[in-house]
Every structure is written in structure tokens, then in C-alpha cells.
């Protein structure tokens, strides 16, 4: 009877921390977009895509974290793999906000760099966990 536990505690903690950080990230980025739209001459056709990317990212974050927790706790590679796929989407949206939104402030760079680092670390832990579950 092999009852070894394969779920990853570091991954579980990081998913939780990322969930909390994302709430802060979302609110701070939204506040900065509002600030930039008031302070700078923000072209109307650029305000909507910047906001759309932020909200799409928030919508992606919910199933991304849910599937990450579920896959890790049930030691199932399927949900963890889907979460990893959604992380790729989140990374692309994060890179958009880092490089291509209308105005990028130093605070945007800092917030996005921390989020990208967290995504990278989390992805590494997900791949390791998937490898443990499959073997």
C-alpha cells in the first residue's frame, strides 16, 4: 500500500499568495489606468483595449487558480495542465500591460515584473507536480 502524498505544498502556498497578489495587482493597475486617463491625454481608442486586457486577465485568473488548486490537491495532471495553459494566456496579457499599453509607468513595470516572476515560479512548480503525478 503506497500512500505517498504527491501534492506540492510550495505550489499550494504560491497559488494562494498569487491569488492574494492578483487582487492587489488588479486594483492597483485599474487605479493607474484611471489615473493615467485623467492625467495624460489618453486616446479613447486605447483606453478600452487596456481595460479589456485587464478584465480578461481577471476573468482568466479565477479558473487558472481554481484548476491549479484542484489539480494539486487531487493529484490530477489534467486540471494542473489546464491551469498551466491558462497561465500562458495570463503571461501574454501581462506582457501586453508591461510593454504595449498606452502609458507604462515605473509602477506598472514593478507590478508586472513581480506577477511574471510569480507566474514563472508557479509554472515550474506545476510542471514538477505534473511530472510527480504522472510517474
UniProtKB/TrEMBL annotation:
GO terms for cellular component: ciliary transition zone; membrane. GO terms for biological process: non-motile cilium assembly. Its main location: other. It is found in: Cell projection, Cilium; Membrane. Keywords: Cell projection, Membrane, Transmembrane, Transmembrane helix. It is a multi-pass membrane protein. It comes from the Eukaryota. The chain crosses the membrane at residues 12-35, 47-67, 79-98. This is TMM80 protein. The lineage of its organism: Eukaryota, Metazoa, Chordata, Craniata, Vertebrata.
Amino acid at each position: 500500500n503506497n500512500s505517498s502524498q504527491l501534492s506540492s505544498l510550495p505550489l499550494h502556498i504560491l497559488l494562494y499568495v498569487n491569488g492574494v497578489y492578483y487582487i492587489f495587482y488588479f486594483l492597483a493597475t485599474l487605479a493607474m489606468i484611471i489615473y493615467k486617463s485623467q492625467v495624460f491625454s489618453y486616446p479613447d481608442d486605447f483606453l478600452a483595449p487596456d481595460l479589456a486586457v485587464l478584465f480578461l486577465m481577471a476573468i482568466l485568473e479565477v479558473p487558472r487558480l481554481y484548476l491549479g488548486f484542484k489539480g494539486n490537491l487531487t493529484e490530477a495532471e489534467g486540471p494542473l495542465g489546464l491551469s498551466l495553459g491558462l497561465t500562458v494566456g495570463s503571461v501574454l496579457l501581462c506582457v501586453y500591460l508591461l510593454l504595449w499599453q498606452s502609458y507604462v509607468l515605473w509602477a506598472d513595470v514593478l507590478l508586472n515584473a513581480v506577477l511574471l516572476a510569480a507566474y514563472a515560479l508557479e509554472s515550474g512548480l506545476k510542471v514538477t507536480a505534473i511530472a510527480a503525478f504522472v510517474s
